[in-house]
Batch of 2 targets.
Target 1
Amino acid sequence: MKILAFESTCDETAVAVVEDGRHILTDQIFSQAQLHAVYGGVVPEIASRCHVESISLLAQRAIEAAGITRAEIDAVAVSYAPGLIGAVLVGVNFAKAAALSLGVPLIPVHHIRGHIAANYLAYPELEPPFLCLAISGGNTILVDVRSYTDMKILGATRDDAAGECFDKTARVLGLPYPGGKPIDELSRGGDDSKYVFPLAHVAGHPYDMSFSGLKTAVINLVHNAEQKGEEIDRAALAASFTKAVSDSLVPRTVAAARELGYGKVVVAGGVAANSRIRADFQKAAEKEGFQLYIPPLKLCGDNGAMIGAQGYYEFLAGHTAGSDLNAYATMEL
Ligand code: KG4
């Protein structure tokens, strides 16, 4: 089954063709990051307008690059929530028109379910049930993935997402947006014990997380140093900050895997590209003896293939939509 899949929830316009949920025939991505960099973050209206400009061309390119005819497309999948509402609306409306004109089913896909499904593309043997930590620019959640379409949230951030925290830390250090990769690069070789940051715990909710205190601590440290004219060890700051994020994520995930008795742990989302977090999960997997799945870097960030992958399993579960499908800024997993 060949699915034409659309992703436009934030600042990537992406169109892919995926076969049977597991094989990428093409994955076309246009990142708008450079357009937003000058503002230090995504400007919603610019994002929406840029999706409008690029989505038709990308769809055309995807069909050509997949080497298929329009008649071979069996269904259309689209990321319909959560995200920047104007941005999501562009993808949803285009996908509805595509499904209507092709005469094929329309499959709505939750963006975070898509991130989780990126792992099905990278690991053919991976099947639920498993535990998943989804860490992106807008979400940080620990999920019990009971089946391809039955998921339960065990814990989530109470405030900022981990990716947001990377982006704000980068901003205060004068690094470009999106800040995750520049912080990752700066942190290599830095002394991760030089600065000590607070690790938040939510009383009575061991799997919930909080990153706003960490974000504020970094901002205050930088501003105080600037006011006193003190030099900051930038590499050590980036390394110490990343250690704090990783120490919030990895031990919680390990504890949940132990409690639920899972031998498979999956990590997903843009922040899963972080080299320190990947290494810490690898160490934990070796120590605890669980099987670890993290997508290759190109499948960590937003892409259309992950929507096509999850779309396949949503279709098998009978989750299709009518032509009244809408877009949503927030949505339960
Ligand atoms: O999954 P994603 O592409 O978009 C959302 O669905 O939100 O995640 C984007 C986030 C950004 O905050 C970006 O800074 C972060 O992922 N990111 C990283 C790295 N690469 C991207 N964070 C830490 N380390 C990285 N290497």
Target 2
Amino acid sequence: MSQLSTKHLLGIKDISSEDIQLIFETADNFKEVLNRPIKKVPSLRDITIANIFFENSTRTKLSFELAEKRLSADVVNFSSSNSSVKKGETLIDTVNNILSMKVDMVVMRHSSPGAPHFLSRNIKANIVNAGDGTHEHPTQALLDAFSIREKLGDVAGKKVAIIGDILHSRVALSNIFCLQKLGAEVMVCGPITLIPKHITSLGVKVEYDVQKALAWCDVANVLRIQLERQQIKYFPSLREYSLYYGVNKKMLDRLDKEIVIMHPGPINRGVELNSDVADSEHSIILNQVENGVAIRMAVLYLLAGAK
Ligand code: CP
């Protein structure tokens, strides 16, 4: 198989483990390209891609743009904060206006869950979901699993604890789908108020004690507290959260094994993760960012082939 089973990448829930393996194998090749003195290939030189971001981003936006440029695509960037969205233009009108300028693919981040799915039903271009509200962040999960595979040789059979604000996290949901499809065991850990009630129906373990979660896992993926999505108080204070759920070096020193530490970024240092762990030899956080470019090159390249 050399083609994805889908025209869009809307979520990990919708793709197969074969799709994920194909993305990884393609990303392996692009990672090799990225380590060459000339980091560019002509693969998408006839393709125009619009990056449409209705929500803030550093890593995902830059990573997609770099991936597109490394593939020789023409790139246009749209940010809602300085656009006619502020004058009341709808999502469909905004995207159709961009597409009428002969754009082939749309990479979109939006605060509403399902926005890229809605778009895929209404426009012809390939859509890549770069994060839709609290729903999915498929390329983040792919680069996370790819980074585990790179560090530990395989994802199958590994135990991954996702620690933090699970309730508001699109990274958590996409990671659960991706890791399970690749044969890993997944645990979620956080305060009871930040764990969705029915999460066990996804086949994950639930742990409320972070030290026990660290003792169980091979990999801890630590997530940010998403204060911008919290309309009510889920815990008394950030200081208290950090005291009970912040991962620090003392906790890792208590373990009788080495574990891998991940974080999708942005990190709130001293809240969910201390610098003595984030910057330690246990951390593969910057490898995740590096791998994001190769993974996004692979996704764009394969979707362009699916046209
Ligand atoms: N990991 C992630 O999505 O980061 P950004 O919000 O900076 O894109």
